[in-house]
Amino acid sequence: MGLLSLAPGVALVDEEDVTYLATIPWGPIVVLDGVAPTIWRVARGSAREDVPRRVAEETGADLDEIRGDVDRFLADLLERGLLVETAV
Amino acid sequence: MDGGSVAEEHRRDVPMAVRLRFGHAAVQRVADGVGADLLHIKGLAVADALRPTPRGSDVDVLVRPAHVERLDRAMRAAGWVLYSTFRSGSPFGHAQTYTHDAWGYIDVHRFFPGFGVTPALAFDRLWRDRGTIELAGWNCAVPDVVGQALILVLNDARASAGNRRDVAAAWEDAGPEHRAAVLALRDELGAEVAFAAATGGLDRYRERREYRMWKVASEGGSRTDEWRARVGSAPDLGAAVRVAVRAPLVNVDRLTHRLGRRPTRREVAGEFVDRIRRGAGEAFRGVRRGRS
Fold it and tell me: Does any CB of chain B come closer than 8 Å to the CB of residue A24?
């Protein structure tokens, strides 16, 4: 099991319920809005498999309904190099 | 429930202030990678007390003069494109501008106009009392508040009288202790003439070599006035001759930006002739005014 954390070289700005991320110095700027900033916040420091449950607890959503979407979202962030999963 | 979305910026607008914070962080990361000392100045890097309203459309940094070349190389390797050079950017030759697809414009200053001491000494002095701010999660070095205030005042010295937006908060409305500290730093860095250009009393410095340059910079003047001021302000004969030789040459960077493409040799030649004519016309009108 690994914990998710901000990848090295990623800069971050939170502004009015929107989270902006960028791998510097190259970019581009990635925009997280809607429920995405909540998932992002929950994900950092969590084990990947725990994130859907914690998001469901925070938002009141049904875990079975969101599990797939949340996991795909995390996979996207990992693929873009914005999050890393480190062994504990 | 939508599990969340990731949108790259081309799919939506990114506020300028957000983009600029990333720009500061990005150039800082590049500088860290090559061991270049940077001070972030103006705009978002300024303390709230000196900046009544957020503004700015680019990133400004002052780099230790000995580190300019290494920073330039590293920035170009990381995607910045040179937009205007030290030689073409301004009459002072103090900054060059880069642009980046993600971060927009950045001005890299090798010195700040107005300091009378050498660029290296000025940087050392500001660096000594530096602080740190966080921009987009990155630690960025800034001058202390006194240094920031002095830079803002000197920056305003190059603006027309109606456009001096920072001198009030940085100087006029400040308390006595802050003003005393700013004056002490001004004197230590030999910035009296430029400071007076922004705050008043410039004519007390008529005898100073740089007086005419600041007179033109703060009050405006013709192209010929600017050339004369640049020659007159040059620190030695060699520098004055270089300025004089360069002055009538076409600024190819500006012509490129005006045309939206690299000018042809014929266009550069045409612009050169136009500039000579404009300079001659201004000189001729000056003679006629002198006679009348």
Answer: yes
Query: Is A31 in the B-facing interface, judged by CB distances under 8 Å?
Result: yes
- Whether chain B has a CB inside 8 Å of the CB on A8: the answer is no
Kindly report the nearest CA distance between residue A29 and chain B, in angstroms.
6
Among B72-76, B196-200, B221-225, B249-253, the minimum mean pLDDT is found in B249-253
- Nearest by CB to residue A12, choosing from B9, B29, B136, is B136
- Residue B157 burial (10 A CB sphere; 0-12, 13-18, 19+): buried
Nearest CA-CA distance, residue A18 and chain B, Å: 10
Residue A46: which of A11, A1, A76, A8 has the closest Cα?
Answer: A1
Task: Read off the pLDDT of each residue in B261-274 and give the average, rounded to a whole number.
Answer: 63
- Given pLDDT bands bounded at 50, 70 and 90, which one contains residue B271? low
Distance from CA of A1 to the nearest CA of B (A): 22
Q: What is the largest CA-CA distance in chain A?
A: 39
DSSP H or E run through B237? helix B237-246
ipTM of the complex: 0.93
pTM: 0.81
Contact B7 A30 (CB under 8 A): yes
Q: Is A42 on the interface with B (CB under 8 A)?
A: no
Nearest to A18 by CA among A4, A35, A1: A35
Three-state secondary-structure class, residue B104: strand
pLDDT of B198-218, one tens digit each? 999 999 999 998 898 899 888
Phi, psi of A5 (to 5 degrees): -150, 165
DSSP secondary structure string, chain A?
-EEEEEPTTEEEEEETTEEEEEETTT--EEEEETTHHHHHHHHTTSBGGGHHHHHHHHH---HHHHHHHHHHHHHHHHHTTSEEEEE-
Q: What is the mean pLDDT of residues B237-251?
A: 59
User: What are chain A's domains?
Assistant: 2-81 (1.10.10)
Residue A32 forms contact with B (CB below 8 Å)? yes
A84 touches chain B (CB under 8 A): no
Tell me the shortest Cα–Cα distance from A42 to chain B, in angstroms: 13
- Cβ-contact B224, B287 below 8 angstroms: no
